[in-house]
Specification:
About 4% of the residues have low confidence. The strands form 3 sheets. A 3-stranded parallel β-sheet has the order 1-5-6, covered by helices on one side. The chain has a 3-stranded antiparallel β-sheet with strand order 2-3-4. A two-stranded antiparallel ribbon has the order 7-8. It has 168 residues and is an alpha/beta fold. It contains 5 helices and 8 strands. The longest helix is centred in the C-terminal third of the chain and has 13 residues.
Length: 168
């Protein structure tokens, strides 16, 4: 009941709006100063070159129309910061260069250029990102994950607890 898990066709733009909007799924479940909220997103991101804004691209989104069909990272962070959660931690395994992990171009007619996007970070939201706006988030085909996701999961499983005190 406390886990919201969507993949592929079930992770469309409407789901992003439903989960992250004021009055949405999270807003209805977060308890004042009692909830620790973790958001994990692995997928495509894309920049809007005019506004220099980063967008998460849902399953039904089009990276060539990121501002119309994507979900702005700034908006997600802003909405999460308004929740009354004790803590909010966001993990993004996405890059915003317009390319894929397989070095293919997502954006029609684009060349592999990089853009430092404007991302507003709220004081009460911790964001771990696989890449900045001028980096590519790489995959590890052998492990069938992004490199960031692979090592994040290994760390959570205990690899990061070097002194075995159950604290990362």
């Amino acid at each position: 009941e406390n886990l919201y898990y969507k993949i592929d066709v079930d992770a469309g733009k409407a789901e992003f709006d439903k989960v992250f909007s004021e009055g949405g799924w999270l807003d209805k479940r977060v308890r004042d100063e009692k909830s620790d909220l973790y958001i994990y997103y692995a997928g495509h991101g894309a920049p809007d070159f005019n506004s220099r804004t980063a967008f998460l691209i849902p399953y039904d989104g089009d990276p060539n129309y990121a501002s119309q069909t994507g979900y702005p990272v700034d908006k997600m962070i802003s909405n999460l910061s308004k929740l009354s959660a004790r803590s909010v931690t966001v993990f993004l395994d996405a890059c915003f260069s317009g390319g894929t992990r397989e070095n293919e171009i997502l954006l029609a007619g684009a060349r592999p250029i990089f853009l430092d996007v404007n991302t507003t970070i709220a004081n009460n939201v911790t964001l771990f990102s696989a890449a900045s706006g001028n980096q590519i988030s790489s995959s590890w085909p052998k492990m069938q994950h992004g490199i960031f996701s692979y090592w994040l999961m290994k760390g959570i499983q205990g690899t990061a607890d070097i002194n075995n005190d159950n604290k990362l």
